[in-house]
Amino acid sequence: MAKRIALVEDEPILQQNYSMALKKAGYEVMVYGTKKEATTAFSTRLPDLVLLDIGLGDEPEAGFEVCRNLRQQSSQLPIIFLTALDSDFDIISGLRLGADDYLTKDISMPHLLARISALFRRLDTINTPGAGNSVQTVGDLEIDNERLGLSWKGQPVDLTVSEFWIVNALAQKPGHVKNRDQLMQAVKAVVDDSTITSHIKRIRQKFQRIDKEFDAIETVYGMGYRWNHR
Q1: From residue 51, how far is each of 102, 187, 218, 222 by CA, in Å?
Q2: Each residue of 123-160: pLDDT tens digit?
Q3: Strands 135-138 and 141-144: what pairing?
Q4: Domains of the chain
Q5: Given phi > 0 = left and psi -120 to 50 = alpha, else beta, which region is 222?
Q6: Is the pTM of the predicted complex or chain greater than 0.70?
């Protein structure tokens, strides 16, 4: 069955161009031009992935609101911002709301399709039985590789797919520094330094909601990050 992608975009020409390319790549595509159309549709059925613009019609931040609502419905639904806005503030805002990726509209279609494919490959891990014991324990952290789930001190941590793979990569070798390139490989996407930094900040915040004393992710300045297992 074809994967179902929701395209939330208000410009008719871009709706047509992206929709045609996605359908040609074998995806089922649903197009929504306003926040109201998208939120109404998503309240009935969630797609398999969402491509989301920020400004919709006369609402300059409608996409942020759609993203926030989607994350309340699902922590693992892949969300990609696809927008003309490229400021650090917009990128960080999008990632803090839980988006898995943030792309600008000058991205080539093959590159966009590759990013979409990477997110779907990662999600397929959930439905693929793992070899041997799929649950790992690293101190107070428990990792369920089959379901892409994490718990800290017995409480589930509500991470996006990208956030899961970052924590998983760090925790595999506690005390070993992972640079940003290695974390990009873990996420299976090409992202810039600010994107990784934003993901790390959001991950810390989620752990700290459970444990105010959480400090297992250490920044090693000029090198990267490491998981401290005490």
Answers
A1: 10, 18, 32, 33
A2: 776 555 554 457 889 999 999 877 778 899 999 888 87
A3: antiparallel
A4: 4-126 (3.40.50.2300), 130-227 (1.10.10.10)
A5: left
A6: no
